[in-house]
Design goal:
The chain is of the alpha/beta class. It has 18 helices and 20 strands. The longest helix is centred in the middle third of the chain and has 23 residues.
Length: 603
């Protein structure tokens, strides 16, 4: 036993969710109880889930609107979003090819959210007609038939953004930036939107929309022969074709737009949101409205006191929250059921680590968290706790405007081997009946599916796969690999996977060789890991814990009883990689890492 004074003591009685340094690991126990323990049943799991659902909408971190309020503005049409806390207004960029419907959506956004609509075309015309210095310079280029230089356009945009109405109401930047250099100019000037919306419409639809457009030279109104015909025969008789709306010129403009859009996308890759623009305008706006409401709510949440955390930068110069505010591992983890505070602590811990990994560009991730309620080998396993964790992750990503596909593997095998792991029985039905909030996340941004390449849709941004696992006679890895191949560079997150190799039916294990299966399973990196440690072959008492939280090191903790009857966790050692059994035993025994290791010991 080492003196506890030699260790760095952590305050483990508080479970306020804050950024952390390491993850939780799983225990290999079949049952547990430190003081009060109870077995779980389907009914207890569901009652726990339902109870949490009732309280969930009041928890700010669980995607309720918090202090955001909806108020009617009598001077404007419709509902507008305001906040009862001091937060910055929305800043939105919208992009779309010619005839993508961008103008229509801009009108609806301005009407709903009251943003200042800024179009570079309108700015150029206004500056030229007003005879300003910038306008006169732009006019020289326009009269000469040349493009207005980026620095002039950027100066106009900056001037407009600096006006008081844009600062107070927020802004909607329409069709700008149009090139990589323009986007970089805005970045250098610290002009960055909360979200970059791209209206995505197939080329053939865009061409048909353009060549069917007609201009009324009297009113300046734009019609479409099929989609928006003129009201009278008199108007129809005077309509003309705009010179840019020939098929040849439209296709040329589309090619230019695509090249520029591809170049710009790298600047806004972490905030870009593609919207299917080949739908009725009401459906398109419904999705945009949900997206902007969530962005607004997220800004409010980020402005809350206590959400500011120390900055740590990774190798990509991205900012991470530091570990200084982490209050340590919760105590009494063998007490079942876990308190709501303990569950919330772990949900937030997992979420923050996963977000950091995704922001770092990691795409093949796994979460391994086997506290007693999440360990299927224990009789206190609660499927409701697993579903709550999945819900927190999915709703958080949906808050960021991402489309999330939550996947549960279905039945595998044939004949006598048909079935699915007991751990997953009924999981999909539970997910479908859960409370997913009141703002339309489920169905719009979150969908439930199974495991396989057919489940990957173009609009999906992130895939959360619930406890994928092999079963005797059946292997999920073939379907899982087909799905990740179809997902490409989009993040795939495995929650408590169990991909160890198992015997196959008649000695045959699917189409992939064993080495390839193991190699594929190992391609997923931990973004979070937590495991309680016990003496080998026992389940009581807890001796310590191993935890890792991306991008930090694995940390080994020892549980220490205090004279007051309380307990705490003190750190023993850290590891750059997940330590093996001998390394853990040596740390507990105080042996240097290069000494001969014993075969027996903890875990």
């Amino acid at each position: 036993m080492f003196p506890t004074s030699t260790f760095s003591s952590l305050h483990s009685t508080n479970v306020t969710p804050t950024p952390s340094l390491s993850y939780l690991s799983t225990s290999s126990l079949s049952s547990s109880s430190s003081t009060s323990s109870s077995s779980s049943s389907p009914s207890s799991s569901l009652s726990l889930l339902q109870s949490s659902c009732l309280h969930r909408r009041h928890l700010r971190s669980f995607c309720a609107f918090g202090d955001t309020q909806l108020r009617i503005d009598p001077k404007s049409k419709g509902l507008k979003v305001t906040c009862s806390v001091g937060s910055e207004p929305l800043k939105v960029m919208i992009s779309g090819a010619p005839a993508s419907g961008k103008g229509t959506q801009c009108e609806l956004i301005v009407q709903k959210f009251g943003l200042v609509h800024i179009s570079t075309g309108d700015l150029l015309r206004a500056e030229v007609s007003s005879g300003t210095e910038i306008g006169n310079k732009a006019k020289e280029f326009m009269n000469a038939g040349r493009l207005v230089p980026d620095e002039i356009v950027t100066a106009m945009v900056m001037t407009r953004l600096s006006r008081q109405d844009a600062k107070e109401k927020g802004w909607l930047l329409d069709g700008y930036p149009r090139s990589f250099s323009q986007a970089q100019s805005l970045e250098e000037l610290k002009i960055r939107p909360d979200v970059y919306i791209v209206l995505d419409v197939p080329d053939e639809i865009l061409v048909n929309r353009c060549i069917g457009r007609r201009l009324d030279p009297v009113t300046g109104k734009i019609y479409h022969l099929k989609n928006f015909p003129p009201e009278t025969e008199e108007i129809k008789s005077r309509l003309v074709i705009r010179r840019d709306d020939t098929e040849e010129k439209v296709k040329s403009r589309l090619e230019i737009y695509k090249k520029n859009a591809e170049a710009i996308s790298s600047t806004y890759s972490n905030i870009v949101k593609k919207i299917n623009g080949n739908r009725p305008k009401e459906e398109i706006f419904k999705e945009i409205e949900s997206l902007l409401l969530q962005v607004q709510k997220d800004r409010v949440k980020m402005m809350k006191p206590g959400n500011i955390i120390p900055e740590i930068k990774n190798k990509k110069n991205q900012v991470y929250g530091g570990q200084d505010n982490w209050r340590g591992i919760p105590t009494k983890l063998n007490n079942i059921p876990h308190s709501r505070e303990i569950r919330k602590y772990f949900y937030t811990d997992v979420l923050e680590a996963t977000q950091r990994a995704i922001n770092d560009g990691r795409t093949r991730l796994k979460v391994e968290i086997n506290i007693p309620e999440l360990n299927p080998e224990m009789d206190v396993y609660r499927i409701g706790t697993l579903m709550e964790l999945v819900r927190v992750l999915a709703l958080s990503f949906a808050d960021d405007g991402k489309h999330v596909k939550v996947c549960v593997q279905g039945s595998m095998g044939e004949g006598a081997l048909i079935g699915m792991p007991l751990q997953l029985a009924g999981t999909r039905q539970i997910l479908e009946f859960m409370d997913w909030g009141d703002y339309g996340a489920m169905g719009n941004f979150i969908k439930i599916g199974s495991v396989g390449s057919k489940e990957v849709d173009e609009q999906d941004d992130i895939f959360v796969i619930v406890a994928p696992q092999n079963a005797v006679g059946n292997c999920i890895i073939d379907d899982l690999k087909a799905m990740t191949d179809a997902a490409g560079n989009r993040p795939v997150i495995l929650i408590n996977p169990r991909l160890k190799d198992l015997p196959g039916s008649s000695g045959v294990m699917q189409t992939m060789g064993r080495d390839k299966r193991l190699e594929y399973a190992a391609s997923f990196e931990n973004c979070y890991f937590f495991r309680l440690l016990y003496y080998a072959g026992t389940q009581y008492p807890i001796m310590g814990a191993l935890r890792m939280s991306f991008p930090y090191r694995y940390e080994l903790y020892k549980r220490v009883d205090e004279p007051s009857g309380k307990e705490k966790y003190v750190i023993l050692s850290t590891f750059p990689e997940r330590p093996d059994t001998d390394e853990v035993n040596d740390a507990f025994l105080g042996k240097p890492r290069n000494k001969t290791k014993e075969a027996s010991g903890i875990w």
